[in-house]
Amino acid sequence: MLMRLALVLAALPVALVLDAEADSIVPLVVVAGLTALSVFLPASAGPALLIGYAAVTMAFGDGHPLRLGVLVMIPLLHLVHVTSALAAVVPVKTNVEPAALKAPARRFAIVQTITFVVAAFTAFIPSGTRTGLVELLGLGSLTVLIGVVALRI
Question: Per residue in 6-31, pLDDT tens?
C-alpha cells in the first residue's frame, strides 16, 4: 500500500504542473483518471499513458522548450515511472524497508543528473529554423553515450 500511496504522491505534482500550464480542467481530469488506473493496476499501461500524456501535453504547450514547467516535469515523470514500477512488483500489504529503496533512489539521482546535464547542453544549441545538423547529431551522440553509461550502473 505504501508504494501505491507513493505513486499518488508522485502523480499529484504532475497534475498541478499540467493544471498550471493549461487553460482548462481537462489535463487535471485526465491525470486523475490515469493515476487511478495506475494505482489500481500499476503493471498496466496506465503509468505509461500518464507519463506519455503529460510529456506530450508539455511538449505541445506554449512557451520555451526548457521552461520551468518542463524542467520540473522531468523528475516528476521519472518518479511516477519508478514508483509505478516498484508498486507493480511489491505486494500491496508488504512493508518496505528504507534500505530496499536505496538502489532505486541512487539510480534515480544518477539518471536525473544525466538528464539535467543533457538539458543544460541543449540550452546552448542554437534554436530557430536553421538549427545545424552537426549540433543535433552531437546531442544525439551525447544522449546515446550517456544511456550506455547509465545502463552500466
Answer: 999 999 999 999 999 888 899 999 99
Distances (CA, A) of 25 to 21, 53, 68, 77, 112: 11, 14, 20, 20, 29
Report pLDDT for 8: 95
- 75: its cell numbers: 523528475
Which set of grid coordinates corresponds to residue 78? 521519472
Q: How far is CA 108 from CA 2, 84, 92, 114, 142, in A?
A: 18, 13, 23, 10, 19
Longest dimension (CA), the chain: 55
Enter the C-alpha cell of residue 98.
528504507
Q: Measured between alpha carbons, how far is 53 from 62 in angstroms, rounded to an integer? A: 16
Mapped to the 3 state alphabet, what secondary structure does 31-65 carry?
A: HHHHHHHHHHCCCCCHHHHHHHHHHHHHHCCCCCC
Residue type, 126: P
CA angle (143, 13, 32) in 5-degree steps: 105
